[in-house]
Amino acid sequence: MVGSANLNIMIKAARKAGRSLVKDFREVENLQVSVKGAGDFVSKADIEAEQIIKSELMNARPTYGWLAEEGGEDEGQDPTRRWIVDPLDGTTNFLHGLPHWSVSIALEHKGQIVAGVVFDPAKDEMFFAEKGAGAWMNETRLRVSGRHRMIESIFATGLPFGGRADLPETLKDLARLLPACAGVRRWGSAALDLAYVGAGRYDGFWERRLNAWDLAAGMLIVREAGGLVEAINPAGNPLTDGEILCSNEPIHSAFAKVIRG
After folding, report:
1. Do the Cβ atoms of 103 and 49 come closer than 8 Å?
2. What is the pLDDT of residues 110-121, one digit of tens each?
3. What's residue 71's pLDDT?
4. Contact 193/89 with Cβ under 8 angstroms?
5. Sheet containing 204-207: order of strands
6. Pairing between strand 135-137 and 78-89?
7. pLDDT tens for residues 169-212?
8. Taking Cα atoms as reference points, which of 31, 67, 71 lies closest to residue 49?
9. Which run of H or of E encompasses 135?
10. Regarding beta strands 64-68 and 78-89, do their DSSP bridges make them parallel or antiparallel, or are they unpaired?
11. Separation CA 242–CA 220 (nearest Å)
12. Domain coordinates of the chain in residue numbers?
């Protein structure tokens, strides 16, 4: 697929940051003896990756706005366009030496996500999409799964940790969903979870209390792969509400009914 100039800039930035992160990831094992040491190391890796991405994107498009996990928000000279970036989604996996984490970059134009990239450097899988142009993983066109029955479907989510207040709500979700499906996975990177829905590896995904940089690129990949994306609140907006529910079309109504209770 030949993408736009903006998409090519995003892919180049994701790959450059990914190379830096992979190099750092190889060092993580040596730091496991010290939680503080490993945590500090990963924080530096995260910040360095964001700096690489920002340098690449802002050098190419200096007037665009910026929203990222580490670097905060900058409206930019062009308030209609902004980059939305998570340089390392799946930090806990990275910290523990688990090869499941990603770089997420999205471009927003007038409130709509028009391009998105989710890169898994450990597996060299580049998921990307542009509005109206479909979704891809490397050279392969993506489609959401074709499953029609909840009982045959696998779903993904994030589980609250560290005493977060939304744990009871998530446990209720699981109590309703687990008897109705083939399984639930919690792999620790929302951006990759969404990309996997787009690739048909998962049949659906839901989660609460996310940030725009967790969701923006993956949402577009799911939509361009033929999936349906909503907020858990039917009247809401996933990007601003920080909650999402998505799946293929055949199971969407049943899946949404289970999660919404």
Report:
1. yes
2. 999 999 999 999
3. 74
4. no
5. 183-185, 154-156, 204-207, 244-247, 228-230
6. unpaired
7. 999 999 999 999 999 999 999 999 999 999 999 999 999 999 99
8. 71
9. strand 135-137
10. parallel
11. 15
12. 5-141, 150-260
Phi, psi at residue 171, to the nearest 5°?
-65, -35
Structure tokens at 85: 């970036």
Average pLDDT over residues 73-89: 94
**Which residues, 6+ apart, have CB-to-CB distance to 102 below 8 Å?**
86, 88, 89, 90, 118, 119, 120, 121, 189, 191, 192, 195
Q: Which residue in the block uniquely carries the two structure tokens 């190379």?
A: 19
What residues contact residue 197 under an 8 Å CB cut-off, 6+ apart?
Answer: 144, 156, 203, 204, 205, 218, 222, 225, 227, 246, 247, 248
Q: Does the fold of domain 150-260 match that of domain 5-141?
A: no
Looking at domain 150-260, its CATH class is alpha beta
CATH of domain 5-141: 3.30.540.10
- The DSSP line for 44-98 is HHHHHHHHHHHHHHHHH-TTEEEEETTTEEE--SEEEEEEEEEEEE-HHHHHTT-
pLDDT at 26: 85
The position carrying tokens 């503080």 is 36
In 3D, which of 192, 12, 179 has the Cα closest to residue 93? Answer: 192
Q: Which two tokens stand for residue 233?
A: 């609140």
Full DSSP string of 150-183: GGG-EEE-----TT-TTHHHHHHHHHHHGGGSSE
For residue 260, the tally of other CB atoms under 10 A from its CB is 14
Whole-number Å distance between alpha carbons of 17 and 224? 25
